[in-house]
Amino acid sequence: MVHKTKTVAEKQLCYHCGEPLCKDIIIHDDRKFCCEGCSLVYDLLKENNLCTYYSLSQNPGNKTETGVFDFLNEPEVKNKLIHYREGSFIHFRWRIPSMHCSSCIWLLEHLPRMDSGILTSRVDFTGKQLTLILDEQKTTMASVANLITRLGYRPLIESEKANAVAGVPSYKNLTYRIGVAGFCFANIMMLSLPEYFSGGSLGDVKLERFFPYLNLLLSLPVFFYSAGVFFGNSWQGLLQRTAVIDLPISIGIIAMMLRSVYDVITAAGPGYFDSMTGLVFFMLIGRKFQDYTFDWLRFDREFNSYFPMAVTVSDGGVERSLPVEEVKPGQIALIRNNEIIPFDSILREGTAWIDYSFISGESRLSEVHKGETIYAGGRQKGSLISVMVKNIASKKHLESLWNLSGKKQHQSLFKKLTEKITQWFMAVTFSVATGSFVYWQWHNQAVAIHAFTSVLVIACACALLLSSPFTFGNVLRLLGRKKIYLRNHQVLEQLANVDTIVFDKTGTLTDNEHPVIQLHFDLLSEMEMNAVMLLLRQSTHPLSRMLLDRLIRENGKRNWMTEIKSFSEIPGAGISGEVDGIRIKIGSLSFTGRKADVARSTSIHIEINDEYKGYASVGIKYREGTKSMISQLKKDGYSMHLISGDKDADREFLKTLFGDVPMIFEAKPADKQQYIELLQKQGKKVLMMGDGLNDTGALLQSHAGLAVNDSVNNFSPSCDGLLDSSQLTCLPQLLKLSKRAVAVIHLSFILALMYNLVAVSVAAVGKLTPVFAAILMPVSTISLVVFAVAGSSLLFRKLLSEPSIR
Amino acid sequence: MSVLIVLIIASLTVASGFLIAFLWSVRNGQYDDDYSPSVRMLFDDETPEINSKVNS
């Protein structure tokens, strides 16, 4: 019975955001909400008659966020974003990564109702972009940014230049080429059909002459425009002295074209226009599919978008935002909670808590006192601090902190393989062609040229070209649904070759977003608990916040109205105060005046009425399923390493997880990279699993680097792939899948070679006819594509849909 | 049979009209976002009924 009520409770979801509800429910307007934020958004929507939002899809909301967008009021910053201005009307575009359903589209397109200054707002869901037209006389960009952030759609503000780079002109270009090729192919097929069925003679001389010439005319745009992609790529390849896979295709297309023109002019036959245009059409579609798969995985967002574009500078008491580039040393800047500090600076007053986890990997906050230096790249946690700028760090410098310099040296193995196959393929084709030419010179001179060109015409590398993009593309697409995003198909095939896995600890194996807070204090009375929570609420220190959250979850919300007497906060030590006659001190061990022996982990101590009550420890939780994942990987024969920027407090625990594997602690980002390099020098193929923040160098250095991220939408560093943290335990299956996918490709290569064997031998004996080519080419191409897609889908279903992996 | 030639030319002209229409629509950005228009057309204009329900 108890069990039953529990499951019912689990099923209750927040009306707004769909998160499961915990003990502290806000019931508002007969609807249940998980937090104040969600109910406030509901109110806001209700006020504006926008509740249709909730009827379009269930629990559509996002958690509300906060952001400071004052910098958008600065003309320099603003002008970078605006891409069109007409009087007081401005047009601009923001990326909104958190839009995810039809309700989002509805709400974002109904923004004009909430702010009359917004003229129109238009969503591009595929690009996750919102195009807005504002009337600056009625509203400002900053207030619109605040509005949609409050609704839970925090815009990702990039300058217009960055947007232009992310645009997709190549996609349109390809679509034009496909359109032209498809049109010509279909018409040529129509005009060729009478020829096929009549067995070569139509009984009308005029028509017999007319059809081939019309076909020739129709094939010209395909040859000169649509096929240009292949010619261009092969030429590029030739310039770099590599045999790219487009080269044999280009040769085939040119051979077919020349042969057909010759046939038509000498009236020797109808030519191979149908095969040629068909080949180009199918190849272009293959390329389109490839592009389509990767289009929505935009990995080009790098660190720049993570840095603040502007900071608040205090100029003789007047606060204003300045673009980061224009801040000068000696100026005084104000840094708010959760802002990244983009320059080296000196703390002017009070105490700051800086999260350097991006740089050092240390997950604990470091405490900075007045007069001490805060280094660029740190993130302020807690209340507003005021700092004096010391050194201006360029963005380049900030990037070098993450050690982005190390570029990937190794080439894709697969690329090498296809290169090899291409060379081999061309060599064989040419020798067979010349061989048959020489043979027929001796036996029947009339057939010689026919046989030579026939071999070049029919030998088709298309299967080689298509099988890999379709197999890998399909697998990547399916993985995307599982929240595993790989940069490209080469990554998948790198994964297949990996034999060593290096894990980063912080943020990868551990769940930093949800720390575990253990309470080690005596039972407090209701009054005392109330007082403690009230006091905690006054503090901006992150540890107080964490503890308060935990207590609220356990005990529900309190009446915050009670007065606190003699409240004081001693930075870096703790807080004290008196509530209803209860004197409370919360803070560090020394603050409460105890010398107890407590574990090394971060802890908060509580003293009530001069009596030590105990402490709460803040620990980091390991992700669920880590243990079984590691034992599975061990079974599969991977050697594992662990590397962490943290102190070795968890060494013993990690031993129980990993067994006896090399573990390195207190490693800086550069150390991690060097460690990977060392392993590679030993001839190992290394997969790096990191969180993508402080181990970017290592991710780049490794053969394949995957970043584990709590919210995939938020951040895409320069890694080879992103894993949603819930999918970390899928790693063994992912590795297995990559191996099988490569096997599917090998199989389709064999299939393609068999087709070619049949076709080339027919051509070499001089028996090739246009009809035969027109049938064989599409059949071989389509059957291979079907094989690749069906094979990889089947694999995927078998490996990644097992119930154990969710 | 020369009527066939005339017909084929006529049909090609019509077909190339469609090709141009296709190219034009791509250029116009009709294929840029293939999801939101399908949803957008289903959005109703707010009826007073819904409004009153919300306001009550």
Would you kindly provide a brief summary of this structure?
The complex is a heterodimer of chains A (806) and B (56). Chain A is α+β, with helices and mostly antiparallel strands and 806 residues long.
Describe, in plain words, how this protein is organized in 3D.
The complex is a heterodimer of chains A (806) and B (56). With 806 residues, chain A is of the alpha+beta class. Chain A folds into 6 domains: 2-56, no CATH class; 168-296; 308-401, Calcium-transporting ATPase, cytoplasmic transduction domain A; 417-482 and 741-806, no CATH class; 483-511 and 623-740, Rossmann fold (3-Layer(aba) Sandwich), CATH 3.40.50; 513-621, Calcium-transporting ATPase, cytoplasmic domain N (3-Layer(aba) Sandwich). Chain A is built from 27 helices and 28 strands. In chain A, strands 16-28-27-26-17-24-25 form a 7-stranded mixed sheet. Chain A is elongated and about 115 Å long. Chain B is mostly helical and 56 residues long. Chain B has helices at 2-27, 36-40, 48-55. Chains A and B meet through α5, α9 and α10 of A and α1, α2 and α3 of B.
